[in-house]
Amino acid sequence: MRRHNRSNDSMREIRIAGDYIKHPAGSVLIEFGDTKVICTASFSEGVPPFLKGSGTGWVTGEYGMLPASTHTRNQREARKGKVDGRSQEISRLLGRALRASVDMSKLGENTIIIDCDVIQADGGTRTASITGGFVALQLAVNKMLAQGVLADNPVIQAVAAVSVGIIDGVPMLDLDYDEDSGAEVDLNLVAGADGKIVEIQGAAEKLAFGRDKLNELLDLGFHGLNALFAAQKKVIEL
Fold first, then answer.
1. In terms of Cα–Cα distance, which of 81, 188, 185 is closest to 128?
2. Is position 124 annotated in a ligand binding site?
3. For the CA atoms of 67, 112, 40, 154, what is the dihedral angle to 10 degrees?
4. Average pLDDT over residues 142-149
C-alpha cells in the first residue's frame, strides 16, 4: 500500500484555495498532498512584438521553486545569474498548456502571465502548477469580464495535468517524490476537459515499456484528470 493508504488509482488529497493573494487579478494556492504551489495570474495591456497589430492576445507562464521548498535549500536563480534549465523547461510547458485553454482572438491585444511558485515540493510540482494555473487564469478572466475590460470570455475549456508512472511493474497515479524518484516509467499528461490531449511527457527511466502499458497509463491519467477538473470547477464556481 502507498503512503496514506492510497490505492494505485487514487490521487493525493487535492486542495485549491481561490483568491489566495490580494493583488493579482487571479490567484490560488493548490495542494497535491504535500506539494504546495502558489499560482497567480497577472493581466496587462499589450503583447509581444511578434503579435503587435494582430488583434490577438498571449498567455505565458513562469515557474520557480523557493529555496526552502525541498529537503535541502535551493540557491535562488537570481544568485546564479541565469534561469535554471528545469525551471525554463517547465515554464514553457506551463505556457503551452494554458494557451490551449484560451481563444487568443477574444483576448484582444492583452497578455496574461501565470506565475507558479513552489513553496513545498513532494513530486508533481509541474502538474500542480498547470492545474492551479488554469484556475488562476479563469479567475483573472472573470475579473476582467466583470470590469468590462474583456467583452467575451476567451476561455475555451479547463486544462489540467497529472503524473502517472510504473513502479515495480505496477502503474500508479499521481506520484509523490519518493515514488517518482524510483519509478521505472515516468509520464506527465496534460489534457483539456474535452478529453483531448495537449501534451504528453514520458520516458522509461530503467526499462522500455510497450504500447499496452502506455494505454494503461493514459487511462489512469484521465481517471485522475476527471478528479482535477471537478476540483477546479468548485473553485471557479464560487
1. 188
2. yes
3. -140
4. 94
Cα 140 from chain centre? 16
Domain boundaries 3-236, corresponding CATH code: 3.30.230.70
Q: Which three cell numbers stand for residue 98?
A: 494554458
Count Cβ atoms below 10 Å from residue 110 Cβ, excluding itself: 19
Is 86 annotated to bind a ligand? Reply is: yes
Q: Is 210 annotated as a binding residue?
A: no
Q: How high is the pLDDT of residue 77?
A: 66
Annotated binding-site residue? 131: no
**Distance in angstroms (rounded) separating the CA atoms of residues 58 and 104:** 6
**Grid coordinates in use for 23?**
493583488
Which candidate, 29, 59, 65, places its Cα nearest to that of 44? 59
Of the chain, the percentage scoring pLDDT greater than 70 comes to 96
Q: Give 83's pLDDT tier (boundaries 50, 70, 90).
A: low
- The pLDDT value recorded for residue 45 is 92
